[in-house]
Design a protein that fits this description.
Jelly Rolls; about 300 residues; about 15% strand; single chain; four-stranded antiparallel beta sheet; 2 domains; globular; DNA-binding transcription factor activity; five-stranded antiparallel beta sheet; alpha+beta; Arc Repressor Mutant, subunit A; 9 strands
């Protein structure tokens, strides 16, 4: 059985995170850059926690299969299901980062923020540039969380949860979603229920529990709707057919497994629910334009 292993976050951070479900820390202001190319790469696979931060610096964020350039001060949001890495281009950097589990966000309303917010979706916008006034406001919130986290305040967990929710809502206010739901109706609800169900299948951690829902019919059955109604709702709300969302998300997971694990192609095919590796190879090339083997060769 193939299982996933990840590294890249200090053990002291993840240990505390597992105990309390939340961790916040100030980022070191200077980073050692390699003499070879003047850059410093921080490779991070995927884990079971969300990450959110306020950072000032010059860097490149590789998020899923996208490349995002960061300059100045930004808010950033990382979904645990999406592989990412950071390449710094400058020694100077400052800011704050917090990590938290979904279990820490205990109420249903707060969990819905994580599940439905475009800030954390694979097709959303995880980086939001800030102006001077917004930087001051967000800095105050992160400093408040850092202070409360180190305190003995009896209800600090609840205060930290409220700060997290406020930061997310402020981020949505600063940069409203371009492709998110603008109104509540039956089609919108079913479309975003589909997106949530699709996202919740990932990451694939072992081949003993392969991907269960892989077609529009599978999702329609789980949502108790007719496949035609699901397809029409998803296309109307998101602009893309159900099959395209499924194919893109499976391809993103396949890329992550190829680049961030040592699973064989056969293991990856099995984990993603393909009966034979050749079926997976053909599917992956059709969706991405490259073969699994050629993508894996790009792994550093």
């Amino acid at each position: 059985m193939a299982t996933r292993s990840v590294s890249g976050v200090p053990e002291s951070v993840t240990k505390d995170l597992k105990l309390k479900g939340f961790k916040i820390h100030a980022l070191p202001e200077r980073a050692d850059l390699s003499a070879a190319n003047g850059r410093h790469a921080v490779v991070q696979g995927r884990r079971d926690f969300y990450k959110m931060g306020l950072v000032t610096g010059d860097m490149t964020l590789y998020y899923g299969d996208r490349l995002l350039e960061i300059k100045g001060t930004v808010l950033f949001f990382v979904n645990p299901n999406i592989p990412h890495s950071v390449v710094r281009h400058s020694k100077k950097r400052k800011g704050y980062a917090c990590l938290f589990t979904e279990a820490f966000i205990s109420s249903r309303e707060r969990r819905e923020i994580l599940q439905n917010s475009p800030l954390f979706r694979s097709d959303g916008t995880p980086v939001i540039p800030l102006d001077k006034e917004q930087v001051a406001f967000m800095t105050g919130l992160f400093q408040k969380m850092l202070s409360v986290y180190s305190s003995n305040y009896r209800h600090k967990d609840e205060l930290l949860k409220n700060c997290l929710a406020l930061i997310i809502h402020e981020a949505l206010r600063i940069q409203p979603p371009q492709n998110g739901p603008q109104h509540k109706n039956a089609a919108t609800r079913i479309a975003w229920s589909f997106m949530e169900l699709l996202e919740r299948q990932f990451p694939i951690d072992n081949t003993e529990q392969p991907l269960r829902l892989r077609t529009a019919q599978d999702f329609a059955g789980s949502l108790s709707v007719h496949p035609n109604y699901l397809n029409r709702s998803v296309k109307d709300v998101t602009g893309k057919p159900t099959s395209v969302h499924i194919a893109e998300r499976i391809a993103l997971e396949a890329k992550a497994l190829l680049l961030y694990t040592d699973w064989s192609v056969a293991d990856i095919a099995q984990g993603l629910g393909f009966e034979y590796p050749t079926y997976f190879n053909n599917y992956f090339k059709r969706v991405t334009g490259v073969t699994p083997q050629s993508l894996r060769k790009q792994k550093v």
